[in-house]
Amino acid sequence: xxxxxxxxxxxxxxxxxxxxxxxxxxxxxxxxxxxxxxxxxxxxxxxxxxxxxxxxxxxxxxxxxxxxxxxxxxxxxxxxxxxxxxxxxxxxxxxxxxxxxxxxxxxxxxxxxxxxxxxxxxxxxxxxxxxxxxxxxxxxxxxxxxxxxxxxxxxxxxxxxxxxxxxxxxxxxxxxxxxxxxxxxxxxxxxxxxxxxxxxxxxxxxxxxxxxxxxxxxxxxxxxxxxxxxxxxxxxxxxxxxxxxxxxxxxxxxxxxxxxxxxxxxxxxxxxxxxxxxxxx
Length: 281
Fold this sequence. Notes:
46% of the residues lie in helices and 16% in strands. It is of the alpha/beta class. β6 (237-244), α13 (252-261) and β7 (265-266) form a beta-alpha-beta unit.
């Protein structure tokens, strides 16, 4: 018998992987789209007459306008600006504004001051920094898949046949199973994070990570306990729940009940101890 309190004590505070913080490949790709234009704009650094120099550069190389939104950490090519003279829309992909209007934009946004007064030495390097900042907004999306990615790594190590995000109907059709008790008598379209097929069994796997507590955790625990009980009634099918996170420490009562009744309830420490290899073998 496993000790619940010891097991709970191994829950992780976070599971941030090395690539969670910045996707540098994406950063380099985004900045690289305007590398030529940014290098052309470098000719304006330290300019003593930046308005005229910018105008001359834009006349000769109109595409330099394409990189301007990036310098302001803006993704869209069309930028809205409001002042006491009214509303203004600037398009940096299609040159729909006059050069004088673009000069006003560069002046009022502070870009001319940034470039002319040597506050930076290289606009491409500056754009790399901008893209790093913008990429931090993607952490929420990356974080949402971290537990699944982590678990998938251990499933791969177990060297088994597995599938991602598989619906109940797909499972039933592929292996001729009746899982209606897990779908509310066919009233829901449940999708499992992973499905592992061994020679003798089909394992239905759910994964999640809770860094903080909340009412959802108690409902999740009760729901998965019921799924485990129902799946046990189907020959050759077993339910595996892999969860972690300090959020469970404030919601441990229901989790404790589920821990005592479920055959396969694991956390990351269990995976590190080759639990999946053992149950799939």
